[in-house]
Write a structure and sequence with these properties.
With 149 residues, this protein is mainly α. Belongs to the DivIVA family. This is Cell division protein DivIVA. It is found in: Cytoplasm.
């Protein structure tokens, strides 16, 4: 601003023959200077407010950028955790399937062993019965011969 309140307050005007009344001009210029001072102060206050608000906007933009980066990082971590959980679930599923197959194989082998054992016991029973029957028939034959004699 090229004109200050002090310039207005102390402005001198040449006087002529019937010129302006100096006191009226001085009073008017004093009021104009007061109004200009108030406007200059208000203007400075508004500039300071603008500066403060611009700093706040810059700080908020920076915080927004950090928040966006944090959100992106959180989303990335969430995707990685989900993928890892899916891999672990698949691994657990495969391990459970393998364990099930192992248990089924062992159960089949145990069933086969028990069936073989049952078959062996049946054969031993049949052999025992045949031998016992033969022994009893031999005794009966001996008894018949003794009765006939």
């Amino acid at each position: 601003m090229d004109l200050t309140p002090l310039d207005v307050r102390y402005q001198e005007f040449p006087t002529g023959l019937r010129g302006y009344q100096k006191e009226a001009v001085r009073g008017y210029l004093a009021r104009v200077a007061e109004v200009m001072e108030a406007l200059v102060q208000e203007n400075e206050a508004l500039r300071e407010r603008v500066r403060t608000l611009e700093e706040e906007v810059a700080r908020l933009k920076e915080a927004e950028g950090e928040l966006k980066r944090a959100v992106v990082a959180a989303e990335k971590i969430a995707r990685e955790l989900k993928a890892q959980a899916e891999r672990e679930a698949e691994l657990i599923k495969k391990e459970a399937h393998a364990a099930k197959e192992q248990v089924l194989r062992e159960a089949a082998e145990e069933l086969k062993r028990i069936r073989a054992e049952v078959e062996r016991v049946k054969q031993e029973k049949a052999l025992f019965l045949a031998q016992f029957k033969g022994l009893l028939e031999g005794y009966l034959e001996s008894l018949r011969r003794l009765e006939e004699a």
